[in-house]
Amino acid sequence: MDSKHEGNAAVVVNGVATDLDGMGLNDGLASKKDVPLVGVIGAGVAGLRAAQYLLEKGYNVAVFEARDRVGGRVFTSNHLGKDVDMGPNWIHGTSGNPIVPLSELANSSLHCFEESCPVFDPDGNLLPQSETDRLQEALWKVVEQATEYSKEHKATIPAHESLYDYGVLKAEEMFGPSLPETNNSGTTSDDGDSATPKAGGTGRIRWKGQEQRKELFLSMLHMWGSLTGTSVMRQSLKYFLLEEPVEGPNLFVGSTYKPMVDILAAPSRKAGVINLSTPITSITVTNSEQRRILLTSPTSTYSMDAVIVTIPLGCLKKAAISFNPPLPTRMQQSIQSLSYGNLEKVYIHFPKAYWLTSNKAPGFFTFLTPKYAPETNPNKWHMCCFSLAHFAAPYDQPTLLFYVFGPSSAHLTSSAFTSPQTEEGLKQYTEFFEPYFSRLGGYEAESPDCKPSHIIATNWSNDEYAGFGSYSNFQVGLEDGERDIEIFREGLPERNIWFAGEHTAPVLGLGSVSGAYWSGEDAAAKVVESYGGAAQHTEGISLAEVCATGSSQMTVGGACA
Ligand SMILES: Cc1cc2nc3c(=O)[nH]c(=O)nc-3n(C[C@H](O)[C@H](O)[C@H](O)COP(=O)(O)OP(=O)(O)OC[C@H]3O[C@@H](n4cnc5c(N)ncnc54)[C@H](O)[C@@H]3O)c2cc1C
């Protein structure tokens, strides 16, 4: 390999002169000649945390980001007039979650929605709340049982079994097996709950009540897809343990993730090491003794001592970066075996939050197997939405947030739909979602307050730098899921190449912001360890210093205990 290294100020690689200052490396860093230079590919949460850690340890860092902004899948839009997150909204669990102290530094306003939510049945009628609460309780119990079952029996559970299969068995235990229409024997007795939707009477009719409950329970189980981005029928039971969340409440970040990303990005911005609009297309390991890893972008080649690759699993699946030599076969298997979900979000903004009919009005709603939208939703895809009007001021807004997943997200991101930011798209999206938002209390068809004024929708499924999807998940067919992830975490130490990102996180953080943070920190710590510890000239800045410049208070506004 014909490569020449001329100190840190300029590197000539295959005849291409690369000025490190031009790469964004400042003079201070460029003068640290003996300090390793670590390339971080991707400026999402994992990459920013890795860069922050390395800078704190005194390492030279160059971050390469394909987009013209940092944050990756954390992205905030103000198209509706107020900020909304197009990627993550939630802090999933609080126990030991590093995003909680980060949210404190950012003075975030966090909202805890009531657990009990209204559910509309397939005919669009509101289910009695006591029935809904009971079914939801049963649902979460089954999810917990499935996690334990998966932990205990993962070696023997067939890879094709899904969480839905498990749910069907549990539903039969709870509500009795399905019976042929003509057979009255084996009738399960109803428990006489007056709130149960049933036709009344005894025997066959009472059994029908249980059958209806079972159907509703299984419909509710489909809402699991709004957490993973894929149908519950594709959720691996064998590796359901990998979906276990951090303990504690789920908190909605009303003030958005943006201030948190700014805090994470601050050290890299201060050091001037972020290279935006610089997609890396190949990583080549040479025989050179120093700076032996070459990163290629469409315009330049950069040489590094070590590299942390944080691009999404979906990008790895599409071979967005070519590795020379190729990745080991086992790692390629991991890339193929792990799955990627498709969760999309649609924010519908109204002149007024008409659904706030009282100060006890519910904050989120579920629409099960809707039969009442045959024109726009003939497949009866389930829907759910959250009210942003419930947030503490000044973050409250008359907006409903719908989550769509799997085939419904494929539909909304297909060429059949125009951007809702156009007049035609606004009309199309309004028609699609009207059957649901029109069912909320306070809706009046003729009232201008009930007509969407702006809509914004995500399009992660068509975003090449998000890997054409939302985040990793664990689908049926997965044979060796835990090992697949470990392979990423181990990285390729012999090549000085490491991997980070939500798909490489410890089990409790997979697919989440917390996991991305942990993984970036972990990969950076491995790099530092591989060089024997912190570099001599430590001039990075700590989170606390960032806080002093980025935010003045350290309270979590509106957090629930
Ligand atoms: C719709 C949606 C909802 C979500 N909801 C939640 C939630 O409520 N709570 C939660 O905890 N998590 C949620 N997540 C998941 C969370 O957003 C991710 O787990 C996390 O942000 C991933 O961070 P990352 O650094 O691993 O990846 P990314 O943020 O994707 O960062 C990777 C970076 O690499 C860049 N890149 C890609 N290819 C290249 C290349 N060739 N060269 C250079 N750069 C490249 C990308 O542009 C990107 O900036 C959600 C995600 C989505 C999409």
TrEMBL record:
> Which residues are in the Amine oxidase domain?
45-527
| Stated name of the protein | Amine oxidase
Cite a single GO BP annotation: chromatin remodeling
Q: Where is the composition biased (Polar residues)?
A: 180-189
Give the organism the record lists: Sphaerosporella brunnea
Annotated region (Disordered) at 176-204
Could you tell me which Pfam families the record lists for this protein?
A: Amino_oxidase
> A Gene Ontology MF term for this entry?
oxidoreductase activity
